[in-house]
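To the team - iron/sulfur cluster complex, inputs and output below.
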Amino acid sequence: MNFFIQRSELRDIYDKVVANERISEADALRLFETKDLNALGAIADFMRQRKVGNRASYIVNRYINYSNYCILSCEFCSFSRKKRDADGFQFSIEEIVAKAREASKIGITELHIVGGLHPSLPFRFYTDMLKALKALDARLQLKCFTAIEILHLAWLAKKSVVETLTELKAAGLDSLTGGGAEIFRKEVRSRIAKGKESAEEYLDVHRQWHKLGGRSTCTMLYGHVETLADRVDHLRQLRALQDETHGFTAMIPLAYQPEDNDIPVEHPPTGFDSLRTIAVSRIYLDNFPHITAYWIGLGMKLAQVALSYGADDIHGTIIEEHIFHMAGATSPQLQTEADMIKAIRETGLTPVQRNTFYEPIKILESAPAAEAVENTEHSKVLEDNLATA
Ligand code: SF4
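Output:
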């Protein structure tokens, strides 16, 4: 047994985990409240190892925000703009396809596409966009839209959520994104994201999508005005839906970025808080195959450490990120594939390039010299992409 666990107040929770016994909400709260980060990390690492063995994954992907115009004004959001704002933007389908074509030179396997709740783009725009991207390359996996975007599109198209999802799927949608979950507790939600969908609506969009055979990720935005009990409540609702549908591929805890938004936060997320949140997510969400450390919000160095605290994925190359950077994130806008491989390899884990569904594409047992050469090429294409973004 790990030295830190042997001496820890968390020993009983470790025993439950070893016995494959599900931990309770009270246990999860204890895990959040402990100062014993070493023991917490060791339990989460045990669970990670049991789920995925000696591997950690990344994805070669590109983000595209088709527009930042949004009819809502969530307090924590620094991304949305109104039509009157000088820095609002909206891309045509041709421009989106051009970005995808450029990124395909580095071998992306996924496009991650979200935007604001655009006031006037017709439903047809979204289905045509998906079809045009699939026509460019049928192998590209399209991970698009948050739950609130789906509700907005359903409203625009005057269709039910199921009809909307069915049409988007037929047009090429492969996966929903997990964004927009924030914190489910009503009181918190109405403070930070008034007017946004309820927890029930968020969960129901994912439920309907899973019932259609779709897969999605989910998130939790932590480190603002919520309590630790609110986080446990959030995780409880995610675990319950996963028991029902088994449709989530991964949970992605998102660290709140306090710089450029309207919510005054006394104690924004620290490294300690991020590591414990990832670790508790791993231990409590025993029915989730993967936990992602989102390097955009954490920084690559902390994301790398998170691989020893329960995470088994560090997300992707991304290339052009707006949402976190407009909120003040200071991480770079992209990572090369070789940098992600290096970050994983340094932790002693085997890097695995994955697809949108977290299935392995390439397992990199050992080839450091070849990776270094690839890095030069890859960096150049990424920089060209950024220059034209
Ligand atoms: S979080 Fe989403 S829905 Fe809310 S204002 Fe920002 S873009 Fe709009």
